[in-house]
Amino acid sequence: xxxxxxxxxxxDRPRILILGGTTEARQLAERLAADPRYDAAISLxxxxxxxxxxxxxTRVGGFGGADGLAAFLKAENVALLIDATHPFAARISHNxxxxxxTTGTPIFALRRPAWELERGDRWTRxxxxxxxxxxxxxxxxxxxxxxxxxxAFHFEKAPEHRYVVRSVDPVTPPLALPDVTAILACGPFAExxxxxxxxxxxxxxxxxxxxxxxxTYGKIAAARKLGIEVIMVERHKPADVPSVGDCxxxxxxxxxxxxxxxxxxx
Length: 266
Hints:
There is one protein chain. By secondary structure, the chain is α/β, with parallel strands linked by helices. Helix content is 29%, strand content 21%. The protein has two domains: 15-113 and 238-264, Rossmann fold (3-Layer(aba) Sandwich), CATH 3.40.50.720; 123-233, Rossmann fold (3-Layer(aba) Sandwich), CATH 3.40.50. The chain has a six-stranded parallel beta sheet, with helices on both faces. It is elongated and about 65 Å long. Keywords: Cobalamin biosynthesis, Oxidoreductase.
């Protein structure tokens, strides 16, 4: 029998399920772990082989789409669903919105703001990873690929370039490309270190997703300082649910939604 995710002895505390996988999700989990008013747990998609330990009870793996998540929310009597997934985990976010609507579970998203163009940036904005491949052009280039391992295969269509690919886990199967340097690393990445990396490999273009946040912004700042082009994959339209931009706002939303009136000072 699977271990219970929530505290079965604390039925009087409202249950919160965080769909995680981001720095912000972990920060929120740390705050909720220290708050005895709520019974919170976090769910990870399981896309990394060795995820960092979480401060809350943790579930790893998918739910089986929107219907599976809806069944879980109902069976576990979840009082609040928080979508704190990666900005490019669109399918999970839309499934969360659908499951919340089906069950009547309150939901909001914790979405860190996207990066904005700054003076000195050389961005080429694209709508998809496939467009990013085309944006490289036909002349051989030295590419720093910083989009995660799951979308790296798209660049097999452009074997004329040299690639430095950074990911948390190895790209599997290995890319069918003649010149690939793999770097396994997990952020945060400092700007100075990113400058060293770009210079060491002679990078002349960075391919990145507009994930926002500070943990991986170093490569964007480094590219700006070195005058290197960034092919920026922009976010798609998010799921239509209320959203907040940081943990403080998330905690305020939780408090307003779940705390008794007397605790809110009303």
